[in-house]
Every structure is written in structure tokens, then in C-alpha cells.
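Record pair follows.
FIRST:
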Amino acid sequence: EPNNPFSDDEAQAILAFVANGGGLFVIGNHDGADRDNDGYDPVEVWNGFFNAIDGAFGIRFDSNDITDSRDNNIHDDIDNSVLHGTYGHVTGTTYFNGATMTITSTANPDVRALIWKSSSSHGSNAVTFATSKYGSGRIAAIGDSSAADAGSGSGQLQNGWDDSRGTNAALFLNATRWLCREAP
């Protein structure tokens, strides 16, 4: 959940890291989540990064704020190790305050929406969790930082890790394993 824009050199270093086999977990937040009051929120920072790399990952955050949402509209792929991995089967995720994403397969044919807002169709919009590949590397993206918090974050975060309305712990652990190439 970055709060300051990446320099051009930093953006190119992140792109090179992923291209050379690195795993990148992109965690955004909602529009207006400027934690340090410098005029930048994570949505703007990540979208600036995505622009700097010409949309190479096929992911872009929407400028919105989804609150108190249980999203169980999941891609039905039993072979997907992020959704059905070592740490359990993902049945949904929860958003406390976060942004959805739009994916663009014309920019990157390997981008995949895995979870959408419950009221949405399985398309390229209203995505709440996505994965992508670039070069030899992998990317996982979510638009709410509270989904990964286990109660140890600042007072602005919610304990999404243990929220019984979703399976955030399994989602993040399976995704991290996938990013580290410990799962197909």
C-alpha cells in the first residue's frame, strides 16, 4: 500500500525484478486513502506505476471505495493453486474499504480475474483479486489492505485475516506461495 509515487528508476527496477522471475504482491486501497496527507493515495501510486510500465501487467485500479463487502463471486477453476492451494480453498474475500480493479487482457494475455464483486459478472471490471504474469515473474493484486491485516496494523485497518465472512488468510497464503513459485 504505497503512499508515495515510484520514481522512473524504481518503476523500471520493479518491472525488471518481475520480468526476471520475481513475485510482486500489489496491495492497493480505496480512493482517498492518503495516509501521510501528501496528496497521493495507493490507487494513484499504483496506477502511476502501471502507466510508467505501459500497462504491462494488465491491471489498473478503479477510483472508487468499496466498503464492507463480502465478495464470493469466484472464478471456478479447481486447478488454480491460488484459489485451491495448500492453505485451503478460497470461498471469498472481504473488503472493508478498497478499490476494485479493471483487467486488460489485450495489454497482458496472462492477467486473470479470480474474484469479483458479488453483484458483478465474470468480466474485466469490478475485480477484487487478480493475478498476472510478466516475463518469468508473477503478480497478485488486491485493492484493500485490511484483507491482509491480522489486527497488527494501524487503527485505520480492520482485521480481515480472521474475518469469518471470507477466507482471506487462505487467499493471501496461497497467493504468496504461488508468487514464490512453490505452486503451479
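SECOND:
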Amino acid sequence: LALVGLEDRGNHLPGELSGGQQQRTAIARALVTEPAIILADEPTGNLDSYTSTSIMELLRRSCSELNQTIILVTHDAQAASFADRVCFLQDGQLINELALPRRRNKAHAAVEILRGFESLRTKVVKRSAE
């Protein structure tokens, strides 16, 4: 709970926590058993930008330090910028992927992801116009 900033909320019931606190609790529950693979669907969805960044840093550390694999679904380029590899899916199909080096500027990585998304959007629009 301390890793997700909820050390003072351990004795509270779920109904006494905000949506963001419940989200962080779910992340803590996923990490506590140190599984080899974590599936995370929009893990920063209900969080403010500061907390989102701290959660993504925590997930990144769990990959690096515990050798975990995290498969993360997100629409947030900033969250995706923490990844080693970004896969773009459309209608259940892999349509592009982007490898991101571990040592990089997060803002540049997010811009690169957004550019990748925009180029894919342009291709889809062109295809539908044909």
C-alpha cells in the first residue's frame, strides 16, 4: 500500500475509497504476489497526472527489478511511453508496432507514439476513401 500511496487507508472498506484509490488498491493487489505476468487494462484511467506517473514508474520498476512482464492496454500516450514496445491494434488486428529504447526521454517517446497513432489514422482514412 505504501508503494501506491495508500499506507494510511489500509483499514478502509472499498466504499470509503475514491475511484483513484480503488484503482491504486487494485494495482497493489496485482503486484503483491509478484506474478510473472500482469495484465493491466487502463491502470491509470481514474488517476490524476502525478499519480499516473508514479504508478507507471512503479510498474516500470517491477519489470526491471522483478523481471515481470506487464501487458498494458491504454489510450494514453504518456502511459505507453514507459513501455519497451508499443503495439497498435485495430479491430483486434496488430497493425503496427514501435520499439522504444529503455533510456529515453518520456516526452519524446510520447510524441513518437502519438505520431505513430496519427500516421495509422491517416492510413485508415485514406483506405476508407478508396
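COMMENT: The chain has four helices and four strands.
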